[in-house]
Amino acid sequence: SSVAQALSAPLRRAPGPLYPAAMASILANKEGQSPVQVTMPDGSIEEVHIDWNVGPIRNQAYSGFKIYHWNYATVRDHWTNYDKQWVEMSVTEKEVAIYTVAKINKVLRERQNPKPPRSLPKMGRGLRVGGAVVKI
Questions:
Q1: Domain coordinates of the chain in residue numbers?
Q2: 0.70 cut: is pTM over it?
Q3: Can you tell which superkingdom this protein's organism belongs to (predicted)?
Q4: Which residues have CB under 8 Å from 127's CB, separation 6+?
Q5: Sign of CA dihedral 90, 65, 44, 110
Q6: pLDDT tens-place string over residues 104-127
């Protein structure tokens, strides 16, 4: 009888996500747009330019740009090397590639920011010079 009651009871839907916006894809309704704005974990916004035929474009360390390629199981030029093209990637793989490029671009841009000046040692403390402590 309890089985019959369970089978005759109406089905309940599983609750949706608590934060539906958090579940949205960064690529939703953005096909063909460039740049795409990516929200970083610290809350800042990073722009990533995308060539929709070949993938996201990343900055290089010493100026210039290049297309970001995603390699799986790369061990130099081993036979297990597998390179997946942008058009073959799933939406999730594309999102991961875009987030990765956003992080790379942010780090490279922040590396160019001026560094704070080095503080001088406090008076009365010694400064080690080649094994000897010299008073300043």
A1: 2-116
A2: no
A3: Eukaryota
A4: 121, 133, 134, 135, 136
A5: positive
A6: 999 998 888 888 888 775 665 667
